[in-house]
Amino acid sequence: MTDVFVWDERLGIPLPQLPRDFETYTDSEQAAILLRWEEIRGTIPDRVKQIERVIIFKQEQLNVEDDFVTSCRLNSEIADLASTINELHLWFRVNQDMDARAAHH
Fold first, then answer.
1. By three-state DSSP, how is residue 48 classified?
2. What mean pLDDT value characterizes the chain?
3. pLDDT of residue 24
4. What is the longest distance spanned by two Cα atoms in the chain?
5. What Rg do the C-alpha atoms of the chain give, in angstroms?
6. What per-residue confidence (pLDDT) applies to 94?
7. What is the sign, positive or negative, of the torsion defined by CA atoms of 23, 27, 32, 35?
8. Quick one: average pLDDT of 72-99?
9. Residue 21 Cα distances to 11, 43, 45, 56, angstroms
10. Which of 9, 45, 61, 84 is the most exposed place for a label (fewest CB within 10 A)?
11. Would you state the pLDDT for residue 99?
12. How confident is the model at residue 3, as a pLDDT?
């Protein structure tokens, strides 16, 4: 079942790429998918912390940067990293929805 997870370079985690609706998988397949997702989901807080450290580093660079073009680049990179954190938070919440659906079957 691990073939339904595809590495996302930007987020730094594998994401589910289910070729069909979750409900069409057998109970054991669903359980395997949920187990694997829970393992991946557990790595998200550490991934967020890694990105936060990079943001802090870039903010420190920005605080002392006098070159306008470099400042703009750093601001853009910080915004991209913050967007990545936001998306990771969204993916972290996906499991709650999947668990709720699985519990109702």
1. helix
2. 90
3. 94
4. 59
5. 18
6. 85
7. positive
8. 90
9. 23, 25, 27, 40
10. 9
11. 53
12. 81
Query: Token digits for 5?
Result: 């997870």
pLDDT at 103 over 60: no
The pLDDT of residue 104 is: 46
Q: Taking the alpha carbons of 26, 31, 33, 34 in that order, is the dihedral positive or negative? A: positive
Give the HSE-up count for residue 5: Cα atoms under 13 Å, Cβ half-sphere. Answer: 16
CB–CB of 60/24 below 8 Å?
no
16's enclosing H/E stretch is strand 13-16
Q: Which amino acid is at 18?
A: L
How far apart, in whole angstroms, are the C-alpha atoms of residue 19 and residue 94? 17
Residue 1, Cα to own-chain centre: how many angstroms?
A: 20
| pLDDT, average across residues 83-92 | 96
**Is-contact 103 30, C-beta < 8 A?**
no
Neighbours of 41 (CB within 10 A): 19
Single-letter amino acid, residue 40: I
